[in-house]
Amino acid sequence: MKPLTPDEIRRARERAGITQTEAAALVFNPVQTWQLWEQGMAEMNLGIWCMFLDKTGLENLSPYREWLHEFDIEHGVHDA
Known about the structure:
CATH topology: 434 Repressor (Amino-terminal Domain)
Number of helices: 5
Radius of gyration: 13 Å
Shape: globular
CATH architecture: Orthogonal Bundle
CATH class: Mainly Alpha
Structural class: mainly alpha
Order of helices and strands: HHHHH
Number of strands: 0
């Protein structure tokens, strides 16, 4: 899996119509951390990304969606 790019993170936030401060609060992180993700100075972890997408209703944007589904099936998280 390739990591999320800063552009993907910024575009998702903009599509959700929220500020960096609001986005950071949704995923329980300081705004400075969100800014680092959008600047490419830190890597957002998959769990944070999924939480953000879930809370903003943007689940279909996840480049990891198919991978997560396969992981769930392999690990018996839910039925296929």
